Amino acid sequence: MAFWLEMRLFTDLRNYYGPFWSPIWFYLASMALCVCAVLAQLDQPAPLVAPPLQGRRVLGSWVVGLLGGVAVLYAQAPVILGNPINVAQSDIIPILQNYVQRFQSGEVVYKYITNLPYPLFPNHLPLQWLPYVVADQLGIDYRWWALGLLLLGGFGAYLAFLNAQRLHVLVFAGAAVLPWFLLRHIIQVDSGLFAHTMEFTIIAYYCVLAASIFSRSALVQAVALVLCLLSRYSVVFWVPLFLWLLWRERGRWHAVFVVGLTVLGIWLIYVGPFLSKDWTIFTHALSEYKIATLGEWSRTNGPDGKPGHLFGGLGFASWFYAYGPGDIPARISLLQKAHILASVGAVALSAGAYWLLRHRLDYRVLALTSLGFYLSTFYAFIQIPYAYLTSLTLFISVFVVAIAWRKPAV
């Protein structure tokens, strides 16, 4: 029920209760889902060994992946074909094309982009644009490539996670189709949401991260962390909690390996090739975010001449815009402080829940639900609550729904 409410409040009931109450109900539904999952799994210890893979379920997963992919493509194809790349609609694809073309020609990637209607300093991390080098060489629209990464990589990781759980056959069947159903439903209700964005790639990365929580491989977990940290660093406050859980539950050497491999990956992909050449890249990127935030908060394209994205029913920015003290920069600064405080608070609350329940709860269940709770909090307090950004939280909720129905170990 909590997941159903969360999905409805994001799709057909988005902003139904107004720009102030809708974000509250949406956030409470997300929280309720995580709490229910924890309560459902109390006193169900982790299995000593993973359940053996069942051929029928693996085959069923392949069938679901194929049919679900066809269903999603059938819904998204008209959206992509009917919305040619246009910088006036969205600048993200032209920006990514600049990164890719500079990278392939050996130019400096992180320097001002001057072929847009306005100058812009690149503020996207490498794994937001590196996957599209192959797409560019093959002449494939980046949006098709991003959708493929989600359907094959992200949802594939979900099916691998699902096959490793102890689920009743009917629950398994229902859970298996859930991400495809969710994505198709979102597209049908709001066809323009993913028309010009590349959020599918980010969702794929975070699906891999959620699945990796249940992996026993330090390499898999490190790769998942690198994918997320070098694409969009939303998860940065949650990472210390995850590493602490690994340290306590899997042993110090496992945690050290994860940290070492993650640091190595970040160095090889970002610090060595790019950041070490110009250490001001990161601060320039933060400056661009501030400029973009101020621009969005100054818009008058929404209800009653207010910023449309702030009053879309998904984030608490509307409260700070309407009731915060001072001018717009002061209200933005106040929300930024609240954002950090709430995000850190969500992690601290999760850590406290783990400590209290550590003898009654599989730490992986806590890690997964804490990821869902943390991301819901992070995007609830984000300065510009774009709907496509918030959509990520629903796909993590799919994992939480599945784990809530796991049967006791035998």
What does this structure look like?
The protein has 410 residues and is mainly α. It has helices at 2-10, 18-40, 55-81, 92-105, 126-129, 132-138, 142-163, 169-189, 199-212, 218-229, 239-249, 252-271, 281-297, 317-323, 328-357, 363-380, 387-404. It is built from 17 helices and no strands. Helix 3 (55-81) packs antiparallel against helix 7 (142-163). The radius of gyration is 21 Å and the shape is globular.
Supply the number of helical segments: 17
Given helix and strand content, the structural type is mainly alpha
| CA distance, first residue to last residue | 28 Å
Approximate helicity band: 55-70%
Tell me about the largest β-sheet: none
Cα-based radius of gyration, to the nearest Å: 21 Å
Low-confidence stretches: none
In percent, how much strand structure appears in the residues? under 5%
Quick one: overall form? Answer: globular
**Helix-strand string:** HHHHHHHHHHHHHHHHH
Q: What is the residue-mean pLDDT, rounded to a whole number? A: 91
